[in-house]
Amino acid sequence: MQRRQFLNAFAASAGLLLPLGPHAWAATLAPGSAAPTAKKLIVVMLRGAVDGMNVVAPVADPEYARLRPSIALARPGQEDGALDLDGYFGLHPALAPLLPLWQQKKLAFVHASGSADASRSHFDAQDYMESGTPGVKGTQDGWMNRLLGALPGETTPTRALSIGPLMPRILAGAMPATNLANGAAGTRATPLDRPAVGRAFDRLYAGHERYGKVYNDGRMAHQEVMNAANGGMLAEMQAADNGAPLPNGFPDDAARLATLMRNKPDIQLAFIALGGWDTHANQGAGKGQLASRLQPLGQGLATLAQRLGPLFDETVIVVMSEFGRTARENGNRGTDHGHGNAMWLLGGKIQGGKVAGEWRGLAEAQLNEGRDLPVTTDFRQVLAHVAERHLRLDGSALARTFPGLPAGAGLQLI
């Protein structure tokens, strides 16, 4: 086995990945001398294109029920009806655990948002949303990796954390990041945690001229995560989806992530992807397939907010999906690939309790290609708003993180 292959295998077995490209050795250097910000960002990616029109449903629009005769949410107050947000929009009833955050103005939505690229391919659209460069397939790194490089302070392998089966596209790049498996296995001991085995590999690689730094960084990152988990509440954290798991286990992963972030303050960025949102058939309304996915998602987000404790005031959670779904239901009582969607923002300092963005209604003349929501707010504008107002990035850092960023959307959410 080649040394590079071994190091990749070691990283995978330890639950982490480090860059092994030409920039690997510079990746752990501090990008600047300024002190790091205490502000945190968590991104939740819903792979498969969640139906934003039934997450934040325009129940007061007469076209809504006409376009969706079997899957439209009932009006607030009716059986399995939407939860009233502002008299026009209603929240899916499966997301009831999030209603207190809305009422506390710590939850907001940006409707008719998404990628300017017209692709309805899951693979392409997810790639564009993770690279932050819609329509450009050659981008090598993800926008969260570029963000990591733009933040002040020293970058360590545990400053950016992903939970999932593989290191995601969004964190790919020159800066180091850590990847943990879903579930309790993510903080379970590996063979390298056995003293005799660890010492043997230390003798082989710790002092190696070329690979020693990557090996040591990997060992350190794994040990730090293990220490954080074991020092906290470990017992409590026991195709379209692109490998992302269904959201059923998300409440446990959310609790584990909150514990890690509380116990290890240098974790600043976190990412998790959830699958199961490609509802072409039997989508359901207040109950059914979509509801069964939304319920653990809502519970997990509420758990994350609660378990973060005071840290929630310093955190913004962004929920996004590659594109929305058709305004009109199809012949299988589901929805097909669409365009505009709804992004979610949660956090202690979010100016929430509102549905932001330019909403044009559901009249056919207002729909994209007569079939789905237009994108009136570019997803990068939402992310840049968070990066600027929450993480305090300046204009040049924003331009590096989001090349080709459109002019501001006038958002006032932070």
From TrEMBL:
InterPro entries: DUF1501. Pfam families: DUF1501. Keywords: Signal. Residues 1-26 form the signal peptide. It comes from the Bacteria. Coiled coil: none annotated. This is DUF1501 domain-containing protein. It comes from Pseudoduganella guangdongensis. The lineage of its organism: Bacteria, Pseudomonadati, Pseudomonadota, Betaproteobacteria, Burkholderiales.
